[in-house]
Structure formats: structure tokens, C-alpha cells
Amino acid sequence: MSELFYQIALTQVNMVGDKVARVLLSRFGSATAIFNASERELSVISGMGAGRVKAFKKSLDRTRIEKELKFMQQHNIQPLFINHPNYPKLLKDCPDAPIMLYFKGGGDINNKKVIAIVGTRTNTDYGRQMVEELIAGLKGRKDVLIVSGLASGIDAIAHKSALKNDIETIGVLGHGLDRIYPAQNRKLASEMLSCGGLLTEYISETIADRQNFPQRNRIVAGMADVTVVVETKEKGGSMITAKLACSYNREVAAFPGRSIDSHSAGCNYLIKTNIARMITQAGDLMDMMNWQPEEDQKTIIQRKLFNSLNLEEQKVVQCLDVEKEIHIDELSIKSGLSDNKMAAILLGLELEGLVRSLPGKRYRLA
User: Fold this and answer.
1) If phi over 0 gives left and psi between -120 and 50 gives alpha, with beta otherwise, what is residue 43?
2) Fewer CB atoms inside 10 A, N or C side of the chain?
3) 3-state secondary structure 70-126
């Protein structure tokens, strides 16, 4: 049997979850070696009682695993075991990360700035607008990936908006890849395969059971640099995702809402308790994460700004571009401008958002 056969088998062993499986992998080195180990070798591992040891011999359903391997081959599904180079690198750092994921699509899970967007299934027009404007503000960035749960409401709006703006998007499912829940998102899921994809920890024929979705949420939170919450009540899956992200030491952002609006009660709570930072647009999120424009965008923006300046302003900007930060007196000397002229130019550039003032009369480009 192949290593992949035993990797899938490891996820199907009764009483052995992801945490224990990772302990076993660190001890034996591979899934094959775990299943070839004797009961005595298994029993000395921390967390392995007699019941778990016997489960290895009893729960190996060869027919079922071979059926899954055939399904994966027929439907171009990529298995991502926890030691696979394409396994989501941020998720791997989470202590409860699933040891196996199944991915279908053409998206790049890694080497991206991953933004999870979550929210209520019963969104208002305000929630829709916030999601659409946020993602439209990211248009043109090839280094961004939008992740959500392919649920109705905010999740679906996030995926659709990403596709509309040519941004890769991945839906994390609470069931196998042989079905889509809810059914009305089947067309959306199909469209995502060419600009992102679908990801799950569940083998085929796994139905969308209620308990699967909190498990799904840990993947959404764990694989993202930042989780953005848009409209949620004080209890629900979005709050679970936000709190999981916080527990993983990831950033959380939320759109505020009216104090009397129950749809925004959860967002307001996250902001009030400092679990989430308040944002109102894409620029806020970029500033919060200290994400600069991609180089080609940055060059275009700088060129346009530079061409709109007069000669004296261009001279000051050129000096600031050479120095990381500089005192106003030194800037006056290098540019050949008087102190009064320099102060007026810097004020104008600061109001335009091109220059930032620092303590001690020092300045730098914004």
C-alpha cells in the first residue's frame, strides 16, 4: 500500500484526532510506519491508551480507502497531507490543524496575503455593500487570496465579489467534495475552480452535519493572515471564527454597525472588546496589516503623483526618496530651499498624504 493510502487511513482511525496523529507522526516519521508499528510501540506514545492502540487494527477499512483514492483520481483532487509543500503554511502552525486536506482547483494557497471574510447568512444591504467595496478596493492585487466558507449570505458575496474583481478565492467546506452545500451555490463553486478552488478535510460521502461547520471554521481562521467580520450577531459561526483567529494570534478586523442593529451586534462587540480592529474600507485593512501596494502598482502611483508636483515639490520628494527619514534643516540644505519655503512645501505634501511628519522635526515619504 502507498503512503497516501495510510495517510487517509490515519484520518479514519476511531479515537485518534489530529493532535494525537501529529504526535505519532513526529515519533514514527510517516503514516506507513505508524500502521506498521506494533501495539507495544504504539502504547508507549503519549496520549495512546489501550483503546486507541486497538483502534488502529480494527478501523482500517481498505475497501473504503481504495474507493476514496479512485474518487480523488477521477475528480482531480489534490491530497494535502500536513507535510506536503502545498499544505497551507499558516494553518500548519495551528495546534489543531487537520493532518489531511483535500483540494480541488487551480488556486495558489500559499505565497498570498490570505484574507478570510466571514459573516451572517442573513445579511442586509449594508453588509453586501461593505463586502463588495472592500474587495473592489483590492482589485489589481495578484498577491491576495480571499477565503470563506461558501455559505449563504456574506460568504457567498465574498466569493462572488472576488471572482468579479479577478481575485483568487477558496471556499472551505464542511463536507466532502462530492457535494455542495447549500445547493444554490453549486454554480458559484464551479466558477471558483478556475480562480481559486474548494478545500475540505472530509472525504467524499461526508454529509454537511451541523458539527462539521465549527471544525471548518478553524481552517478558515487558521489559514488566514487576517479575518474580517462583516455583520454577525453576538453568537454564531462568525464569532467562533473570529475568536479562533485571535487564539491563533492572527489579526481580526470588523466593520462597525448601528448600536440598535442586531446584525452588527457581534462586530460591535469584537471592536469594543479589542478582539477586532475597526475598518471601513480596503485602505484601513492594508494599513492595519502594513501591506504595501505591489511594486508595479506602487511605481504607477508614485509616477502619477510625482508628475503632478511642481519643480520645488519634486526636489523635496527626491531628497526624501533617498533618505529613510531626514531633519527639516538637513532637507533645506540638500534642496537649497529656505526654511520658510521648506515648511510650506512640507505642509502641502503632508496634506496631500505624500509626506509624514515624525517627532523631532523629521520627515519621511508616506
Assistant:
1) alpha
2) C
3) HHHHHCCCEEEECCCCCCCHHHHCCCCCCCEEEEEECCCCCCCEEEEEEECCCCCHH
Show the domains of the chain with their CATH numbers: 3-66 (1.10.150.20), 102-289 (3.40.50.450), 295-365 (1.10.10.10)
pTM above 0.85, yes or no: no
Phi, psi of 196 (to 5 degrees): 140, -120
Give dist(CA 58, CA 125) in Å, integer: 53
Instruction: Quote the distance between the C-alpha of residue 62 and its chain's center.
Output: 35
| pLDDT surpasses 50 at 131 | yes
Widest Cα–Cα separation across the chain: 85
Neighbours of 131 (CB within 10 A): 29
Express each pLDDT in 205-229 by its tens digit.
999 999 999 999 999 999 999 999 9
**Cell 454577525 -> residue:** 232
Closest among 133, 309, 147, 140 to 224, alpha carbons compared: 147
Residue 345, amino acid: I
Predicted confidence band of residue 125 (pLDDT cuts 50, 70, 90):
very high
Q: Cell for 200?
A: 475540505
